[in-house]
Amino acid sequence: MPQLITREITILSSSKAVLNMSITSTAGAIQRAQSTLDIMRATLSREAALCTMLATVLPANAFTSHYSSLLSSTSSSRRKSKLYSTVDTETTHLNNGAVSPSSQLVDQFLSQYGTSLDEGRQWANEFGFAEGEGAFYAIFRAIRRIDSKIGVGSEGTKLLGLSGTPFYVPASQLAEAEIASGEETNKLSDFCFHFSNLATALDDDFLDATVGSTDNRKGWQVSAVSQPTGSSFNDARMTLAQVKTALNSGTVIFNNIGAHIPRLAGPTLASTDALSLPGALNMYVTTRGMRTSAPPHTDRQDVLVVQMEGAKRWRIFSPPTDGDVKPNADPFARGKGTDSLPLHILLEGTEGRLGSELLMDVITREGDVLFIPAGFPHTTDTVEETDDADYDASIHLTFNIDTHVWGLDFLSVRNVALRWLGLKDVLTPSSLSTSNPEMNRYVGKVNQLPKNIRSSLMDALPLDFLDLSPNDNPNTVDPIVNQLGKIFTSVNELTGDTATISRDSLVEVLKRIHSYGSSILEIHRDMYLTAVEEGRLREAEAAMTSHIKDSRSTSVKLTPDQIRRLSLFRVRPFFQKIDAAKKELDDWCLSGGTSVPSISDNSDENTLLDPNWQFSSPVQVGDECEAVLGGAFFAARVSRVVGDKYDVQFFDGDRADGLERDQIKLLKPPSPENVEIDTTGLTKKEIKRLMKKMEKKHRK
Q: Which architecture, in CATH terms, is 604-699?
């Protein structure tokens, strides 16, 4: 063993020497050093263990200094070291720190951001915001305008989805755009949310969070940060101490935090209003020195990241091309749960097993913006180039553009149309019922289609879809109808299917989806506005009660009314409305064709069930359900049952462990043979007759 260790140290020392030689080489030797580095990187990607050891010995910027010189990155006055990128210099634009495979897209974003700032200021004034919320509005207005210019079915550079384009813009360039627009009171830098703000929020509210795993060879899994320590209300609340403890294990994740923390409700409302799309905000907190703060994974949402405090390194890859090998892997949930996207395999490049290419390698710092399209693998760490950074935790906000979550994409519209007409969807996994609205449409045969058809199916509807008026003027959805027609034709040619849908039927379906999406949008707006008003009410109450605070205490005891207004209770009714809107769309689908009746039918079989069967029936591994995440129910599947505790995997690949029975809502009633029947008062003959009747129904 000592000999082996000595040998490995020798190898590492040699590798480090070669790297240092390449870093200090003259311009004439760079090409030879590049070849050496390429060979070494290929070897290291095959030997994952050696790569990990190498990373523990070399300085964090050993690889990147070389690339900085190649890309001529400029230093920023607020940075102690150069921003870097390891993207292909022939396809990547690097100008004053901005990074993207498309220089044109970055220029468009900055131009549209500057143009939208005045509109953002007017929006902020309307709602009484004065801390940079209008700048968030301008950011998302810029994204929406870029998307609208691209158009439906365009073959050019796209922003969203599997054919999208990531980009990074430092705070300095955003500030330049603000100055050029003449905007002095509506700046992104005016808004902040630091660890001290999180500490206050934990004291003021009842928050929930999870902590993520850190193994970059396995799928990202999460577990609860805290468990109730007693039966009282305060015993159930998550504390700052528990969050700090969890930070030692991984990144602490606050899902849908814009609905829970009033200070974050304003920016979340800004994104929702600017896009005219139901959006959500997550917050991620990571301690310094975390070599893997999030293992490689993909998301169902197109996301825009804004760094609030500290720094974080991001590596972003092109979508994997192994769909024909793993058709049942959701492209929007790769690297989550049981699926894995090992970093060393991603780094194999386009000729490797996953066929992914490293597109960007950047560090975000306070005020920087990063956009990642849905389905693009990315991984993060907080290993700093300098040891004297003046912060303890990295905090970033992730704004979710939730088109796929709410079924506002071409694949979902196609499926709704087929369900409404009672037609079979050949792309639906055979193990899933076409009458189940919670099925995962992004797995199965759809991933075996040619890349261009698959991407077109999974493209989001235009971001201005909910601002159209198909009920008043059906022609407004003509581009979408035309694209759907092309998609149906392509799928039929490739699969041999014969399903056809008339233009009038497609327009009718789009009208219904428009109505559904508009309802979801208004529910989200009301939820965020309620959080904003709650924050202002708390400020007023604090001012009125400041004189009666106990000098030995830092807070006033919550009144029953204040407890009722805590986010845990405040948010729940809105998600109940969302569930009702989803059910209304599902009922409409079933009413239009010959699909299987819903479980609410008053059949004799269902009348034998407990009226509260969704929360009382036995739960088994594999059961489809909705489970609590962030105070609301989301589609999931039961993955493990241990006594009276349940583990679930959510629709986007996230996990939750140790849930109680009342935190799980079954979507299907148990089969007749599993239904427990109360036979109290029945004779043996009556029981026998009842059992025969049930067996007969089951055979049918």
A: Roll (2.30)
